[in-house]
Amino acid sequence: MAQKVIIYTTPTCGWCHRAKAFFDENHVAYEEKDVASDLAARQEMIQKSHQMGVPVIDVGGELVLGFNEPVLREKLLAPKQ
Questions:
Q1: Are strands 5-9 and 31-34 parallel, antiparallel or unpaired?
Q2: SS3 label, residue 45
Q3: What phi-psi label fits residue 27: left (phi over 0), alpha (psi between -120 and 50 degrees) or beta?
Q4: For the chain, how long is the longest CA-to-CA vector?
Q5: Residues of 56-66 as b/e, b for ≥16 C-beta within 10 angstroms?
Q6: Quick one: which of 13, 36, 43, 67 could link to 19 by a disulfide (CB 3.0–4.6 Å)?
Q7: Within its chain, how far is the Cα of 24 from the centroid?
């Protein structure tokens, strides 16, 4: 079963757009939460990550701060042992 992926974004965040494009190109399903317009999502992101920068990407409960493509590839695309 695929891991649940949540990405916390803002509309003007270039790294957020790159992360979403990476997910789309690699057929990774994700839930997007816009922290600019959704106060509850913003509070949830800050509680999880202790920071206000975006993107914050939650991969099955593990956080990836920023768009770190090598880490995302390892967590989402590497074959499982």
A1: parallel
A2: helix
A3: left
A4: 40
A5: bbbbeeeebee
A6: 67
A7: 12
> Which alpha helices (H) appear in the chain, and where do they start and end?
14-25, 39-49, 69-76
- Residue 13: count other Cβ atoms within 10 Å of its Cβ: 19
- Enumerate long-range contacts of 66-74, CB under 8 Å, 24 or more apart: 66/15, 67/15, 67/16, 67/18, 67/19, 67/22, 69/22, 72/19, 72/22
pLDDT digits (tens, 9 = 90+) for 17-51: 999 999 999 999 999 999 999 999 999 999 999 99
**Domain topology for 5-76:** Glutaredoxin (3.40.30)
pLDDT of residue 79: 76
